[in-house]
Every structure is written in C-alpha cells, then in structure tokens.
Amino acid sequence: MTDFSLDIVKTYVHDHIGEFHNDRIKSLKSLKLKKILERKNPYLFKAKNMLTSEMIVRGFVDSHISSNEETIFGGWLEGLAIFINSRVFGGWKSGIPGIDLEFDNNGIRYIVNIKSGPNWGNSSQISKMIEDFSRAKKTLRTSNSGLITIAVNGCCYGKDNRPDKGQYFKYCGQQFWFFISGSEELYTDIIEPLGFDAKKKNDTYFELYANMINLFTIEFNNQFCKSNGEIDWKKLIQFNSKGISETSLTVKL
User: Fold this and answer.
1) Are 141 and 147 in contact (CB under 8 A)?
2) The pTM is what?
3) In angstroms, rounded to a whole number, what is the distance separating the alpha carbons of residues 172 and 113?
4) Do the beta carbons of residue 130 and residue 98 sit within 8 Å?
5) Separation in Å, CA 188 to CA 94, 123, 156, 173, 183
6) Residue 247: what are its φ and ψ, rounded to 5°?
7) Residue 109's closest CA among 49, 77, 165, 152?
8) What letter would DSSP give residue 164?
9) Measured on CA atoms in the order 46, 50, 53, 57, is the torsion positive or negative?
10) How far apart, in whole angstroms, are the C-alpha atoms of residue 75 and residue 219?
C-alpha cells in the first residue's frame, strides 16, 4: 500500500476531465429530435400544461441530457476510482465480466462493481450483479484455490447504512472513496479538482445547447403544431406511441 496523495487526483483530473466534457458535447451533437420524442413520455408534458414548442422541446431534451450525462460522468468517475486505487493498492481494471476493479489488500482479493449512486438498479439488475460476483469468485478460485475474495458494490455518491448485504458489501460515498484509497477525506477533497477548466468547457457546451434548442423548436413547430400555432398533441402522441396501422391492430383480451 502507498500513502494516498491528493496530488495524484489533481493530476489525473487535469489530464482527463476534458474527456468527460468532450463526450457530453459529442453526445449533444448526435441528438435527433425525433429520437428523443420517441423515448420520452409525452403524457407527462401534457399533464404539466406545457403550451409552447420551446417548453416542450427543452423539457424533452433536458430530460434526455440529465440521464445521459449521469451515465457519462459515472463512467468517468469509475476511471478515476480505478486510477486512485492502482496508485494506492496496485489495483487494476478487471477483465472479468461484470467486475470493474480488482485489488489485493491484507491477503484478500476485492472484486468491485462500481456504480454512480446507491439507487442504481431494480431487483433483477441486482440479482445479475450477484451472479456476476459468484462467477467471478469461481473464476478466481480456479486459478488460485487458496484465494480469499470479497465482493463489493461501490457507489461514488450517497450513503447506505447497512453495507453488509450478505453475498456482498455495498460501500457508498465516503465509505467507497475510503475503501479504494485509504483516505477518509477523499470524498470531499475530489470536489475542487473536478472544477478544473469547467467554465470554458461549459461555455462551449451551452452555446451548442442553445443553438440546438432553437433548431429543434423550429423542427417541432413544423411537425407538431397546427396552423394557428397550437400544439397538436394527438399527432405527437401518435408519433410517440402508434407502432402499426389501425387496420392491422388487434389486441387479444
């Protein structure tokens, strides 16, 4: 084990935070209005009494961006966690399916599945993770029968006051960052470096975002507004939800 140093975090963030910003810009550039309209819930926006094209477009786009950026940044944080652990404990990116990080500490091999926050999955997704842990343990025992393994679901933020789940441990927020680094303060220390170059990157992003909202609003007006400017909700719902022609629609009850 090597003593933790915040300098290694600062260096990594300065070298790699641009990857996150570039990925979110790339994702924004790839957006297509109709693809977003197909994936989001139009009934919700009607229930919220959204009356203008710009309000609807911004609502659909912002909802998509929020979930997408969580995924992008979650992947980036995973890379940061693995890097820190590699410098402190000599850990490595696992090649075992379903496992993100492996490292040894005090004679124990830890196998870690990293998620952004604590509420990341439903019961079937959690069951899949437990199956991945079980298969990983069998794989490692095959190569080293005397190896002691402990499975951990690590979450980059949040908290879980009952970390022992029986078949695995769940460490969130401060517990997770302490677990992979040995530093009790890392969970707060990493905040400052994450802001590196953020303003410049965000200026570029929001200029692109504003242009896209304008273009999508024009497209929405052309496709889903009546001649008097009113939103054609029936047409929007049909586009979102109607998969086959009425003549071929049959439902068995």
Assistant:
1) yes
2) 0.81
3) 12
4) no
5) 26, 31, 12, 10, 10
6) -70, -25
7) 152
8) B
9) negative
10) 32
Write down the pLDDT at residue 3. 81
**DSSP class of residue 231?**
B
Q: Are 67 and 39 in contact (CB under 8 A)?
A: no
Residue with tokens 């952004």, as numbered in its chain: 116
Task: At 230, list the tokens.
Answer: 């009113």
Specify whether the CB–CB gap between 33 and 219 falls below 8 A: yes
Please answer whether residues 25 and 202 qualify as being in contact, where contact means their C-beta atoms are separated by less than 8 angstroms: no
The dihedral of CA 109, 113, 119, 125: what is its sign? negative
Q: Which residues contact 218 (CB under 8 A, 6 or more apart)?
A: none
Structure token pair of residue 109: 């091999």
Mean pLDDT lowest among 44-48, 80-84, 103-107, 127-131: 44-48
Any idea which residue has 């926050």 for tokens?
Answer: 117
Measured in degrees and rounded to the nearest 5, phi and psi for residue 183 equal -105, 125
Two tokens, residue 179:
């677990």
Residues 221 and 41: their CA atoms lie apart, in Å, by 18
CA dihedral sign, ordered 193, 194, 195, 197: positive
Structure tokens at 155: 């979450």
Strands 92-93 and 101-105: antiparallel
> What average pLDDT does this structure show over 209-218?
94
Number of H helices, E strands in the chain: 10, 5
